Amino acid sequence: MTPAIDAENVRFAYGDTPVLSGVSLTVEESEFLGLVGPNGSGKTTLLKILLGLKTPDSGSVRLFGTPARSFTDGTRLGYVSQQSSEADATMPVTVREVVRMGRYAHAGIRRLSDEDRRAVDEALDRTGITDLADRRINRLSGGQKQRAYIARALASEADLLALDEPTVGVDADSVERFYRLLDELNDEGITIVLIEHDVGLLAEHATTMACLDGELYAHDETRPFLESDALERVFGSARAVRADALGGDALGGTTDASAGDADPIVEDADAPVGGN
Amino acid sequence: MATRDRLAETFPPQSFARRAGIVAGVGVPAGLAIMSFIVWVFPPLYDAFWGATCSTADVWLVCSGFLQRGFTAGILIGITAPVVGAYLVNRQMALIGEALAHTAFGGVAIGLFIGAAVPGLDYPLLFALVAAAIAALGMQWIAVNTDGYADIPIAIMLTGGFAVGIAVISYGVVFSATVESYLFGDILFVPFRNVQLMVGLTLVVAGVVAATHKQLLFITFDREAARLARIDVWFYDTLLIVLTALVVVAAMQVLGAILVAGMLVIPVAAAMQVTGSFNGGLVLSVVFGQVAVLGGILVSYALNIATGATIILVAIAVYLLALLVGTVLGR
């Protein structure tokens, strides 16, 4: 089977500052990949490269077998970015209008069909914001707004859903709901790539996990991944971590991970293994 | 860096040729249809409409040929300018209209100069259209190769276009009244062929926006998501800026090069105060545009002051009222 994403030896730098080097990653269809890494480890950049939104300096990325840059089927991709767009603070646009944008790749220049409207209603319903549909988006709270963007990605009925820390600023109840929704979607066969700072939460839901800090440290099924030393190597070598703090709240300190959940993972770490 | 990312936005690379093919395939027949409409169909319709209006209400206001042409031109601008402005304003590109208008004025000056020498080419608005289109594409080129629609290129284009206009005028022999009508607008001085041109431009703008509204809205609201949906954002950027050039040239006769941007911006800004939806705002801004144009013409007629200026002042009054209503409604 053709993998959903196939990246080989991706290198990327902002000017003279290297961000990614030699990253190779394969995401199979129906995989639920949790991507973790310290702040500034290049997670967002990698995700954008994988989606064809940025061009790597070298290396290749294929989406469903086609080079990402010439992959034209926008209907197969859904994306929830880390920060909402600049325009949503000032522009008069309703939640429903935003969610409808998820159907634009399907519609092209024709009018939205009943099928499109049904997908929009369903996405609003699944994210629990039907009653907010006619509200102006900048009148919503951060969490509600984030659900609107998730609804937009859902409405696109994409085969590959990429989410970049979508639950930042979202209340605990909604986070719970959101993960249940992701599990459902994944069960339906949708490939998911999720960047998340809460390693413990991620471990409960993702089928595979990968750890990034400029280079990819490990990519494995969730259980073996957690048992490997990948997390401690990455978070141990992260810029802000004191080596002797690792056993305590290293994860909490660098990634805002909920330390309680993540503790078992790093308990037995004696000293960080230098990764870089 | 910025340049590379912006260039990367032109993907998918192969789609440009395909899109050019579609544009030519649809554009040429549509263009011919619009040409035939404004040459053969529109004039009898126009005569029938104003003839009927004049015989119903026999007042000078609707029976004078000057005012009939002025009203028609104004109503058309009150539709197209706010529609295109809605996308521009929400992308913080409001001043691009002003820059294009000033460049179009440079084109008018060149057109007047050439028209004085060669009477057969005495069609300054066509020169304005060419100048504005070239400026629009130039602006797009600069945006791709630098940091987007920054205010420095806009300021250079705005003053540069005007400088060319003034230089050409000072060199040639042109009646200052004619120049002033393009600078400040003169609704009583709209020849019928310019009304025809405006009808053509309005049909082009309306047709293109109707077909591409979703794409234009998407790139206005969230470029990155639009790129992910594999919408060619630079194609639609170029389309929007060229549409702006068309609207600006159409509006120049009524509002003048200096005041054109007001019609692109103010009705939209007013609508944004009282609505939460983009589509609702689009409709409302056209309504406000009509109020400004018709109110402006009537007030300027009653008080005997310049029409272009009055239209803009009425638009601002509408905006202030909308601001008040919006505050009360808590929008």
TrEMBL record, chain A:
Please give the Gene Ontology molecular function terms for this protein: ABC-type vitamin B12 transporter activity; ATP binding; ATP hydrolysis activity
Supply the EC number(s): 7.6.2.8
List residues of the ABC transporter domain: 5-238
Database matches in PROSITE patterns: ABC_TRANSPORTER_2
Q: Where are the transmembrane segments?
A: none
Q: Using the UniProt annotation, give all residue ranges assigned to the region (Disordered).
A: 252-276
Instruction: Give residue spans, biased composition: Low complexity.
Output: 252-263
Q: Which InterPro entries match?
A: AAA+_ATPase (IPR003593), ABC_transporter-like_ATP-bd (IPR003439), Metal_Ion_Import_ABC (IPR050153), P-loop_NTPase (IPR027417)
Q: Which SMART domains match?
A: AAA
Keyword ATP-binding (UniProt):
yes
Keyword Electron transport tagged: no
The alphabetized UniProt keywords are: ATP-binding, Hydrolase, Nucleotide-binding, Transport
| Enzymatic reactions | an R-cob(III)alamin(out) + ATP + H2O = an R-cob(III)alamin(in) + ADP + phosphate + H(+)
Q: This protein's superkingdom?
A: Archaea
Main enzyme class: translocase
Any Pfam family matching the protein: ABC_tran
Q: Enumerate the Gene3D superfamilies for this protein.
A: P-loop containing nucleotide triphosphate hydrolases
Briefly state the protein's biological role.
Required for corrinoid utilization. Probably part of the ABC transporter complex BtuCDF involved in cobalamin (vitamin B12) import. Probably responsible for energy coupling to the transport system.
| Matches recorded under PANTHER family | IRON TRANSPORT SYSTEM ATP-BINDING PROTEIN HI_0361-RELATED (PTHR42734:SF5), METAL TRANSPORT SYSTEM ATP-BINDING PROTEIN TM_0124-RELATED (PTHR42734)
Spell out the subunit comment: The complex is composed of two ATP-binding proteins (BtuD), two transmembrane proteins (BtuC) and a solute-binding protein (BtuF).
The UniProt family comment states: Belongs to the ABC transporter superfamily.
For this entry, the protein name equals Cobalamin import ATP-binding protein BtuD
Automatic annotation (TrEMBL), chain B:
Name the InterPro entries for this protein.
ABC_BtuC-like, ABC_TroCD
Q: Would I find Electron transport among this entry's keywords?
A: no
Tell me where on the tree of life, at the top rank, the source sits: Archaea
User: Single Gene Ontology BP term?
Assistant: transmembrane transport
Cellular compartments per GO CC: ATP-binding cassette (ABC) transporter complex
Name of the molecule in the record: Zinc transport system permease protein
What species does this protein belong to?
Halorubrum alkaliphilum
Q: Which family does it belong to?
A: Belongs to the ABC-3 integral membrane protein family.
Assign the protein's first listed, main location to one coarse class.
membrane
Keywords attached to this entry: Membrane, Transmembrane, Transmembrane helix
